[in-house]
Each structure stands twice: as C-alpha cells, then as structure tokens.
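Hey,
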Amino acid sequence: MEKETRIYGIRAVIEAIKAGENVDKIFLQKGLKGDLFSELESLLKKERFNTSYVPVEKLNRLTKNNHQGVVAQIAPIKFYDIDELVTSVLESDKKPLFLLLDQLSDVRNFGAIVRTAECTGVSGIIIQKKGGAPVNGDAIKTSAGALFKVPICKVDHIKDAVFHMQASGINVIAATEKTEQTLYQISFNEPCAIIMGSEGKGINPSILKVVDQKGKLPILGEIESLNVSVACGAFLYEAVRQRSYSSADAL
C-alpha cells in the first residue's frame, strides 16, 4: 500500500504547492512570523488549502527533521476535476451515482464509505477542501484500497458541487433525519447524487435548503441515529436495489 508523504520546511511547501502536488493538509506552527511564512500564508489563502495552526510539539511528532514550523501532508492519490469527471460520466453508458460528503471528519468512516462506494459502483466522491477527513494512509487502509479505484474530487464548498450536479441534470438527495420521507419513497433510478453529513452536525442547513429531495432511514430502536458509514451503505444499496430491479424489468 502506498504510504502518505510528508514534506517540511516553508520553502519546500511553497514549491510543492506551486508545482501542483496533491497537498491534502498543512500544519502551521502557532505564532510563526517572517516574510517567507507570510508568503506561504498568502498562497494558502488564495488556494484555499486545508490548514491547521498547531503547537510546535505537534509538528515535532510529525517529523524529526527541521520543519521550520511547517509540515504538509501529500495525498497518496490523484484528485479529479469535478467538471471533467461529471462530463465523462454523463457521456458514458453508466447511470451516474455520485456521493457528496459534507465535512465528514473521521478517517475510518471516510475509508469505510469509500469501500462501500466502490462496491456499489459509485461514479465519484466529492469532498470539501477544508474540514474533512484526511486522505491518508489510514483512509486507504480502511477503504481496503478502494481509494485508488473511486475518483475523488475536492471543491471549495459542497454547495458548489450541489449546484454543479443540478445544472448537469443530476438529482441531489440529502440523507437526513429532518424529513418525513424515508429513502424507500425516493426513486434512485435517474442520475443522482447522495449527500451524507458530518458525524456530529449532519448536513449543513444551508445545503438542505437547496437539495432536490430529502430521505431518512426508519429508526425502530431507542438510539436516534446510525453511524454515518452504515447509513451511507443503506442509501447506496437502496440505489443498487432499485436500479437492479429496474434493469431486470427492462429485460
């Protein structure tokens, strides 16, 4: 399995960004000053990278080398352009089924979701540049290598991806308990994209306002919600079930 790569040093990270490396997250030392560091910060704000300001002890744990207050984590996969991916899927014979993850933060949940997505034929997964789980070695391990097989896109905001899907004729369905409609009342037979929310907050309310449909899983026990990766699996396999029956009926 390909391991995640870390680079360190202010100039090295600046050059990596300019060279178009797949930078997944950047850790910056709190209180760091200087002209070169200011140049890096300006570049990060312009490119909207996922950054965290941390104590120097955190950086020391990430690398034993002279990090100069900056450590960048390079994703071990290639990220796809959302416009190119959606266009290629629409032009193929495959019925689109996309997955949008709204700041899902747990790396194990992320990996498990990618694994299920690969098993259910998901066309691509869209994540947000900031606030989501890192695309690292742990995610690859949990996904059983599926991260190398399912196209992953990064966008500035998930709402941008929602609008992009809708403009492309793709029905956007939110998995949320804030509805009376269950997922079994929703048709997944047309091109669609399913949105899953974060572990603690669910889907952002501003995104719920612009989706095409909302669906929930019926909960029969006393615990009010399922783990997000389990819930995602239920939604994806309902899509598979409906599409399988639809294909069988057409024969």
